[in-house]
Amino acid sequence: MMPELVRKMRTQLDQWHEAGLVFFPMDPAGWGPEDTLEGQAYRLVYHSYENWHTEEIVQTISDDVIAMKNYRQGILHNRGRNEAMEALDRMFCGLQKGTGEWHSETLASILDRMTVLHLKKLHALVEAPQRVPLLQEQANFLADYAGHLYDDMLAGRRRCIWFIRLKLFNK
Length: 171
Description:
By secondary structure, the chain is mainly α. It is built from five helices and two strands.
């Protein structure tokens, strides 16, 4: 299950990047309802992708009013990203079996880091091609590790705690 989900997440990011999309409405068609792992994985990659591009624009804008508007947009995408990770953690924890050894990082956090590394890799292809192999290696490691952790959670060998992301800002 996890390898297919990771492939779908990466493919979606690749498609948006290749199409040059920035600031577009969320359209999870083909991903499943929001209350599924696939639906929340879509939310995670969508908000991470949009947040990346918002940050990219904010860093290059000198006009304070425009920068603040784009920064506000980034806050909303970061909130959506955190909400998606929390929902994924809740779902993954609901699937785990047994009382295996605790793992310190949640599966959603691993998928989030893998998504960010994939976005870095896509942008490094043009801006810093020498970094692409290392970024790909790190993203592949996280994707493989997510698969192993998921399997261990289902088999009862490992378990994760569902950490509620209690953000105290941007409510």
